[in-house]
Recover the amino acids of this structure.
């Protein structure tokens, strides 16, 4: 691993924030937890993650990456079977843009 910072532009609700990823090899679930609890310079959470959607269904959040061929956001599932997935599993590289995708789940 180089001494270079691993940075991602994370987009949620028309807000883009550049994040430094301390451990790009960490499981996606760990990275999402870190983003959910990230505090800005003002001492407030950087992103406001509602825990329920407008219908009251609980929400989970995933990273998504734009598929350059069809220009759709593809969800990066944190686990496939019993295997934790990482940024590398989805070819997410330093400087890429990823999206935060809310996903309601049946309650």
């Amino acid at each position: 691993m180089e001494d270079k910072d691993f940075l991602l532009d994370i987009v949620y609700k028309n807000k883009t924030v550049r994040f430094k990823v301390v451990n790009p090899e960490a499981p996606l679930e760990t990275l999402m937890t870190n983003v959910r609890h990230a505090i800005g310079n003002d001492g407030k959470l950087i992103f406001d993650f509602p825990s329920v959607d407008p219908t009251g269904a609980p929400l989970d959040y995933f990273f998504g990456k734009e598929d350059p061929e069809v220009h759709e956001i593809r969800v990066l599932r944190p686990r496939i079977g019993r295997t934790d997935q990482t940024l590398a599993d989805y070819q997410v590289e330093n400087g890429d843009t990823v999206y935060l995708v809310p996903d309601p789940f049946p309650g």
About this structure: The first strand starts at residue 6 and ends at 12.
